[in-house]
Amino acid sequence: MYFEGPPMRAGTDRTRRTIEYFDGRTEFYDYDPELIPVQWQSWLRHCRDDPPTLAELREAEAQRLLTIQRAAELDRKWEERKLELERQRAAALPAATPESSPTAPHGQGDTFEPGAWTPASKRR
């Protein structure tokens, strides 16, 4: 719930605006701006004169949900595009030839032999 009361200091016309959380939090450090709609935050900070209307809050919530839906759709399309690009990249790579395939390292200590690897030529 949001409240507006008399000014905090004498000689000022700026009213005191506060919030009371539904779960009973009263301490200042418990303030969580993620739980308060932007319109109410603006009112609490005296960035707007009038408190937001229910219609304004509903419209903002509908816009927020639409944005989330569109972002999820874009994420899904990007994942599909990444898979398509990966398939194209895999199809464009030449098949590994026996002389270009790596050999495994073997041995231990003084007899250790590192593996060999010859890079394939890069297409330009």
Automatic annotation (TrEMBL):
InterPro entries (UniProt xref): ComplexI_NDUFA12 (IPR052618), NDUFA12 (IPR007763)
Cellular component, GO annotation: mitochondrion; respiratory chain complex I
Pfam families: NDUFA12 (PF05071)
Gene Ontology biological-process entries: mitochondrial respiratory chain complex I assembly
Bias type Low complexity, positions: 90-105
Disordered as annotated region, ranges: 87-124
Family, as annotated: Belongs to the complex I NDUFA12 subunit family.
Name the record gives this protein: NADH dehydrogenase [ubiquinone] 1 alpha subcomplex subunit
Organism in which the protein naturally occurs: Spizellomyces punctatus (strain DAOM BR117)
